[in-house]
Amino acid sequence: MADQDQGLDAAAFRSALARFPAGVTIVTTRSAGGTPHGFTASSFASLSLDPPLILVCLDQGADCFPAFIAAEQFVVNIVTPAHAKLAMRFATKGEDKFAHGSFESDEGGHPILPDAAAVIRCELEQAVPGGDHVILIGRVHDARIGSGKPVMWYRGDFLHLGQSVQ
To answer: Starting from the edge strand earliest in sequence, which strands make up the sheet with 22-23, in order?
Structure first.
């Protein structure tokens, strides 16, 4: 709240961030009891090549927050335009996110999108608080590249690679 006291316009801040195109991922895990959990994230990046680390940011208010903090492993699925509706479902609270989707399970039982642009399987290395989010740092133990092109999130909508921006 200190930033608001210093005059930061929250709407202008969100609008400024929306001007930065970002990739779209669906991040998945499963609980110790085997229940699948997931969320959509555009805050995803490579962190280190040696050791191989990635980061993804999760809202602390997300329904799946406790499952990811307790998880030993998670999967980052880089989505394609075909996954746009699925990505929107995974960005919504209270949805049965896995009811309609083409997920398969990897050998550890974690949900993966077999037709994703890429699938990156990680062990949770560290969870670092960051404001209203937590930064999940994952040590990559497997990466698979698919044939589809990734989709971008820009100004509140999906942008396909090669598409003109208006």
So the answer is: 22-23, 151-154, 157-160
pLDDT at 108: 87
With 0.85 as the threshold, say if the pTM is over it: yes
CA 43, distance to chain mean position in Å, is 7
pLDDT digits (tens, 9 = 90+) for 36-59: 999 999 999 999 999 999 999 999
| C-alpha triplet 145, 151, 157: angle, nearest 5° | 160
What distance in Å separates the CA atoms of residue 74 and residue 71, rounded to the nearest whole number?
Answer: 7
Determine the average pLDDT of the residues in 67-76.
96
Q: Which domain holds residue 83?
A: 22-144
> Quick check: is 150 in a domain?
no
In a domain, 59, yes or no: yes
CATH code at position 89: 2.30.110.10
User: In terms of C-beta density within 10 A (0-12 exposed, 13-18 middle, 19 or more buried), how is residue 16 classed?
Assistant: exposed
Contacts of 6 (CB under 8 A, 6+ apart): none
